[in-house]
Amino acid sequence: MTKFWKKLLQAVSISSGILAIALGVVLFRQYNPQMPPAVESAPAIRDPFLAGQPAQLVMVTEAAPSLGLRSGLGRAVITQEPEPTPPPADTWMRFGGVSWLEGQIKAVFTPTCEERRIALPAFSVYAWTPEIFDSGLFEVGKSNVVAWEHLGYTGLWMHSGLDVLGRVQSAFPLQEYMERHISGRLNTPEEFDLKAAQCLIGSQVVFEVNGEKVTGTVSALARVPAAEVAVVSEHVMDLVPYLAETYPESGFAELEAGGLVLYFCGRQLSTEPADMKAGYFSQTRIIVGIAP
Fold it and tell me: What is the pLDDT of residue 51?
């Protein structure tokens, strides 16, 4: 075969290959499965202690809403949890008529069952924004908490446990009081619940904000075990009614709008299996409701 015919054969081969690719692209565009266009939506806030997990989709319907997952005869649609819009700072994050977005907060709990004071380390409150968990403000050791508003309640995300240097985090004294048995070991879940009912429910808490003191009453408490953490983390914007329905003995059904909700992690208690995917101080969730 002469050089001419070799070059001609190469040219025909290259042209055929280009034509085949172009035809394949046309056929793919014509016959590939048609997917619905993605609907852009702002990110929903989620439990910051699960912030590394991808956003979950929630199945809802056009029927009348109810707690948790909704069902009915309406047409089912897929949507994300709604994003809250933080209210103006001058009208929000006020408890007992005092703004919490200025200066540091001190809190002291007085149990009803004994002569004892549980003082939390001073902390600063920052209103939730879509970027706050990436900003570093809520990192362990910063003495900061993040506030969000839902259904007329103000929630505070707080760190518990100790940091890598052994420093006490904002919610640790209350966590330690509830989880620790008088003998020094950790309580069982039953002992935790008994201590909550006998010592914390009905107890007084005094907040000091820039020299002003505001008093509240602990009226609700729920401990979410490790197996149920993923579910409660999907109920950021309906947290209080979800707790009222799921944990009817917790007292959250009686917590009225205007109440304060403290949300922090807890440990695996005696007799409980460990969640090997979670840290030592972040096995469970402890949620405390405080009425003004």
Answer: 59
